[in-house]
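Q: Please design a sequence for this.
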């Protein structure tokens, strides 16, 4: 039973779709790090500067202060002291990262669909260029035909 299950698993893994999906996941993971860097290092600093030198990754709301009820100057200090925080700055960064990834995926899918449409139209043009319709019997005949093979009319 386990031998048959292992064989089925091996066949499933070696299918082209599974390998393509694995490659896509690996590329997606590396793309995520690029997008995160773009958001944290390129997009958010100018936005933070325009909003009064705010570092979005350090924005938080302290829900429950530590035992001595002190407010902390940074998120790291609050976490080190064990304070319960609501990290809305990290959430904003993640939303922006998601929007960038969504736009990138949309652009790729749109480009693929445009390319598919172009290829399909070229195939249709090629198919139409090899045949024509007999004006007498309305059957499809070769474009070079001098006589219809169905009704024997001269064209």
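A: Design:
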């Amino acid at each position: 039973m386990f031998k048959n299950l292992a064989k089925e698993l091996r066949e499933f893994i070696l299918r082209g779709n599974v390998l393509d999906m694995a490659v896509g996941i690996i590329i997606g993971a590396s793309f995520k790090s690029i997008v995160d860097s773009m958001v944290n290092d390129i997009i958010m600093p100018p936005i933070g500067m325009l909003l009064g030198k705010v570092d979005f990754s350090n924005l938080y709301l302290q829900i429950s202060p530590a035992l001595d009820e002190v407010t902390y100057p940074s998120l790291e200090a609050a976490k080190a002291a064990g304070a319960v925080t609501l990290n809305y700055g990290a959430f904003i960064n993640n939303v922006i990262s998601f929007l960038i990834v969504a736009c990138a995926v949309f652009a790729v899918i749109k480009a693929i669909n445009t390319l598919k449409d172009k290829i399909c139209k070229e195939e249709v043009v090629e198919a139409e260029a090899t045949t024509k319709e007999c004006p007498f019997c309305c059957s499809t005949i070769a474009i070079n035909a001098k006589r219809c093979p169905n009704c024997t009319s001269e064209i």
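Q: Thanks. Anything notable?
A: Helices lie at 2-13, 16-50, 75-81, 88-129. Residues 47 and 54 are 8 Å apart (CA to CA).
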